[in-house]
Write a structure and sequence with these properties.
The chain has about 160 residues and is α+β, with helices and mostly antiparallel strands. The protein is built from five helices and seven strands; from the N terminus they run αβββαβββαααβ. The protein has a single domain, classed as Pnp Oxidase, Chain A (Roll). It has a seven-stranded antiparallel sheet. β1 and β2 form a beta hairpin.
């Protein structure tokens, strides 16, 4: 059973939330452009929620950052932004309070994941089994990942 086939344990959640405190302390730049800090609204409570996600692709020309929902459409942050637009995003030196987002189609997800696997082969080999995917990134593996895990692209609203 893959890690993402069940909700994360309290220990896993605490570990995954650790970078949030760096961003809250104003130290998010220490994480570079590899991570994205997402501020969104809880869909049932309406309260502020903060999530740090790994950036799988960053196009600094646009700028646009792409993240993947590792727990699929069950991810709380994903469900929250589908219910209400995100409030702000931080990634590296970028901070967007007026932003747009889009869900990538399957072909775009395959391209982004293939590029990610090429740029970060060790990270892919470590993450893939936890996601229930083959360690080797093939077109079939990328297509399987695209079917299970939605990818979201964030950019400033002015672009």
């Amino acid at each position: 059973m893959a890690m993402v086939d069940r909700r994360p344990s309290r220990i896993t959640r605490a570990f995954l939330r650790a970078p949030v405190y760096l961003y809250r302390a104003g130290l998010g730049r220490l994480l570079g452009t590899r991570f994205l800090y997402l501020v969104h609204q809880g869909r049932t409570t309406g309260r502020r929620r903060d999530t740090v996600l790994e950036v799988v692709h960053l196009d600094e020309r646009v700028p646009e950052a792409v993240v993947v929902a590792a727990w699929g459409k069950r991810s709380d942050w994903y469900r929250n932004i589908m219910a209400a637009p995100p409030r702000e995003v931080w990634v590296g030196r970028y901070h967007w309070t007026a932003l747009r987002f889009r869900v990538l189609d399957a072909d775009d997800v395959v391209a982004v994941l293939t590029d990610y696997g090429r740029r970060h082969p060790r990270a892919w080999r470590a993450l893939a089994p936890r996601l229930g995917l083959d360690r080797e990134l093939t077109p079939t593996t990328a297509r399987a990942a695209a079917a299970r895990f939605p990818a979201i692209a964030f950019r400033p609203a002015s672009r």
